[in-house]
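Whiteboard transcription, Tuesday session. T.W. wrote the structure tokens on the left side:
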């Protein structure tokens, strides 16, 4: 069927409208507090929706349905772990972030351990966040190339440029408020898509349920004691909890939003309520994948990659107008995630590195440099996305794998800082390096599923860091 002028008009109006909406916030950026924390004046519900948008990218919307198409609903077990992780952050990490006037997560590390470890943790965040985001930006090209027929590189350039415009000008306020709009667009669009698929499958939900149940697609829980399976109850609950505690508690991309809340209580409310929304959202995406299986009843290999199934269905099967709305919805998720990455990478670069060496820079110059850093990171992410072309498999898992490689080391260090008094900088640095090397080995040299990497890396980092801290302290005392 393809897209017609109505679809292209809807997509064009969305892209122009969201860019202009984001630009409304450019005059409010007079200080770093405005640019990176939106003057700490964002209501909890907006932060909650922004958190949801920040952890939802194009790869989530197109790859999670593909995952359900190939397997079943057991990924939800990981999402249950996401809820547990949010509770842990609310009690263990957030109280420390609201003791003082912090801009980044890694300032907490310097306050507890010292500047060397702050540089190490911030640097690790910059490298791994950029790598993971490069894969996410690449996922945009899958959708845009299928929908608009543009080349993959041109598709990446279009979305990166439009997102950069309002992020560059409006800072975190523009990012959060465009996230709110984009969340409604992509969730609403997906709901419309679900009912459209329901209408297109002969026999409706009864037929879909019958096909899915026969094929084992409706299975949610897997209690098998198998360490080699990524989506069991144990891997999902434990691994998902560790992953979210790390991603939402130590990653500047999410911590920056939590710090923008008016107070700690609103920050906790935003974090916990975002978990409820995430559970609903992932359930929605997975059900879409199950319904697509009932519609096509053919191996995903026939589409080239499972990630291409949902975009292909939208373009080839959806009625005109609805297909344009759904493509716009997927682009909304892409832009919200990319804007979050650009602002968080910029904030860590300026706050954690540049200003520590150049504290005398005036406020106006700081905002100017922050905008330049945003531009620089946009170019970096564009380059990484281009490098990702034809080099990754199912993009949602690749993105999570790259992020997971660093998260265990980061979380282990943060827990050493907030849960112990005897841990010191030397011990924490050594533990962090051991944890990171362990996770690299798990990724490149073993068959251990990615759902376990963060938990293992955290335990190694914490245990080694604490043991070395005690040993180093004892040797120093004796000498």
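and on the right, the sequence the group agreed on:
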């Amino acid at each position: 069927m393809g897209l017609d002028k109505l679809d292209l008009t809807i997509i064009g109006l969305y892209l122009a409208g969201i860019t202009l909406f984001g630009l409304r916030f450019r005059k409010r950026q007079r200080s770093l507090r405005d640019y990176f924390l939106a003057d700490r004046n964002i209501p909890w519900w907006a932060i909650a929706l922004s958190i949801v948008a920040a952890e939802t990218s194009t790869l989530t919307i197109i790859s999670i349905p593909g995952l359900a198409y190939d397997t079943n609903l057991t990924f939800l077990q990981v999402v249950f772990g996401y809820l547990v992780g949010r509770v842990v952050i609310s009690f263990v990490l957030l109280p420390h972030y609201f003791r003082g006037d912090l801009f980044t997560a890694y300032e907490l590390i310097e306050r507890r351990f010292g500047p060397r470890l702050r540089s190490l943790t911030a640097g690790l965040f910059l490298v791994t966040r950029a790598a993971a985001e490069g894969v996410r930006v690449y996922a945009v090209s899958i959708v845009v190339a299928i929908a608009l027929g543009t080349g993959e590189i041109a598709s990446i350039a279009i979305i990166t440029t439009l997102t950069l415009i309002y992020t560059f000008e409006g800072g975190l306020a523009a990012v959060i408020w465009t996230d709110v709009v984009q969340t409604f667009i992509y969730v609403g669009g997906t709901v419309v898509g679900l009912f459209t698929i329901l209408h297109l499958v002969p026999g409706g939900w009864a037929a879909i349920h019958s096909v899915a149940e026969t094929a084992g697609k409706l299975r949610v829980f897997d209690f098998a004691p198998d360490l080699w399976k990524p989506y069991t109850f144990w891997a999902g609950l434990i691994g998902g909890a560790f992953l979210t505690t790390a991603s939402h508690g130590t990653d500047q991309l999410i911590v920056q939003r939590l710090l923008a809340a008016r107070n700690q209580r609103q920050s906790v409310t935003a974090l916990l309520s975002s978990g409820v929304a995430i559970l609903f959202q992932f359930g929605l995406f997975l059900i879409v994948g199950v319904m697509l299986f009932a519609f096509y009843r053919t191996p995903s290999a026939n589409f080239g990659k499972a990630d291409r199934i949902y975009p292909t269905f939208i373009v080839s099967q959806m009625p005109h107008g609805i297909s344009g709305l759904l493509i716009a919805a997927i682009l909304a998720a892409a832009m919200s995630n990319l804007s979050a990455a650009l602002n968080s990478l910029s904030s860590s670069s300026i706050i954690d590195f540049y200003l520590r060496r150049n504290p005398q820079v005036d406020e106006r110059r700081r905002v100017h440099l922050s905008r330049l850093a945003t531009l620089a990171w946009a170019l970096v992410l564009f380059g990484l996305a281009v490098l990702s072309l034809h080099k990754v498999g199912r993009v949602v898992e690749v993105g999570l794998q790259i992020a997971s490689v660093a998260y265990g080391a980061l979380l282990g260090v943060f827990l050493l800082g907030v849960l112990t008094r005897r841990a010191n900088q030397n011990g924490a640095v050594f533990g962090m390096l051991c944890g990171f090397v362990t996770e690299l080995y798990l990724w490149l040299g073993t068959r251990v599923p990615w759902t376990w990497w963060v938990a293992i890396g955290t335990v190694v980092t914490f245990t080694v860091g604490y043991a070395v801290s005690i040993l180093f302290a004892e040797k120093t005392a004796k000498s």
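Someone added at the bottom: The chain has one domain: 5-392.
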